[in-house]
Design brief:
333 residues, mainly alpha, 16 helices, 2 strands, 76% helix, 1% strand
């Protein structure tokens, strides 16, 4: 079985093979178009979702050659969704470099995201992916978009009456499904098997844990490892589990001050006030609370998955699935 590092390389290579090459372009503008499409994929990334898909399919006994196009398509989804997400959130950075819309402007970046979306479907069709795989991709796109809509409307409509349950609902749709549920299900479907119910139930917990850890790293991570702007969630006004916990426990005057800051658009937020809120959240214990929730999600998810994975034909690949899932939550980047 391939090591995680070699598997990441294989997925990235398959993904890049599906994209146009600047040197093959017939005019300079088309070469630039190819560079935009390849920008985020060439930045690398952990390829956790594609790797999780491959190890799951291998555990079912499928050959890697059948799984790689589906895994590459899932990583293309990740990349075009990130381009759109960075535009919608007005993010400054992605994977340690300026966001694509900061380099080329919003219209060209948006167009590149649309083109990657098309290439995702083309890759699946060219690989003659089973109907169940195509339907699962449609499902993950729709669920992610609905979750993104929830998050954006909460910011745009200045919602501060949200609960932790609201966050978990939004996060389950926006991030958890495509991070863990879809890779597990797609691995089984690409192998010609029917995904067990545990893949969705456990995968949702593990995907939620992943996103909560991402929220933690956004406030308490190391910039060099995290690869994105520290405290970016505060600049963008995102309603994270951490922020909601802080607001619920804050004194009335602190909550009013925090809400007044969060109501401002990014460009009008005073840096000193963002620094104040960042510091107060770190002091409040809300980050530690989020870490505990994420660890609980990890333990529950892994406990539910182990008996299912233990019955699959390839125990070594099944162990790779569990190892990757642990990395989703216990990580520093």
């Amino acid at each position: 079985m391939l090591t995680p590092g070699r598997l990441r390389e294989a997925i990235q290579q398959r993904m890049l093979e599906a994209l146009p090459r600047p040197e093959a372009a017939y005019r300079p503008e088309v070469a630039e178009y190819a560079r935009l499409l390849r920008d985020y994929p060439e930045r690398g990334g952990k390829m956790l979702r594609g790797s999780l898909l491959c190890y799951t399919g291998l555990a079912y006994g499928a050959p890697l050659e059948r799984l790689l196009p589906v895994a590459a398509a899932l990583e293309l989804f990740q990349n075009w969704a990130l381009i759109h997400d960075d535009i919608e959130d007005a993010s400054d950075e992605r994977r340690g470099k300026p966001a694509l819309h900061k380099l080329y402007g919003m219209p060209l970046a948006l167009n590149a995201g649309d083109a990657l979306h098309a290439r995702m479907w083309s890759l699946l069709v060219e690989a003659e992916a089973p109907r169940g795989v195509l339907l699962e991709f449609a499902r993950l796109v729709e669920r992610t978009a609905q979750g993104q809509h929830l998050e954006m409307t909460w910011v745009e409509r200045q919602r501060f009456d949200l609960t932790e349950a609201d966050y978990l609902e939004m996060c389950g749709q926006k991030a958890a499904y495509y991070t863990a549920v879809a890779p597990l299900r797609l691995g089984a479907l690409a192998a010609g098997a029917e995904p067990p119910a545990a893949f969705e139930e456990a995968g949702m917990k593990l995907g939620l844990g992943f996103q909560i850890v991402d929220d933690v790293l956004n406030l308490a991570g190391e910039r060099e490892k995290y690869g994105k702007e520290i405290a970016g969630d505060l600049w963008e006004g995102k309603r994270t589990l951490i922020l909601l916990r802080f607001l619920r426990q804050a004194l009335p005057e602190e909550r009013s001050r925090a809400e007044a800051l969060l109501r401002l658009p990014r460009e009008r937020k005073p840096a000193a006030e963002v620094d104040w809120l960042h510091r107060r959240i770190l002091e409040s214990g809300a980050v530690e609370h989020a870490r505990r929730v994420a660890e609980g999600m990890l333990s529950e998810g892994l406990e539910a998955l182990r008996p299912v994975l233990s019955r699959l034909p390839d125990p070594q690949a099944a162990a790779g699935v569990l190892g990757l899932l642990e990395q989703l939550v216990r990580r520093e980047a």
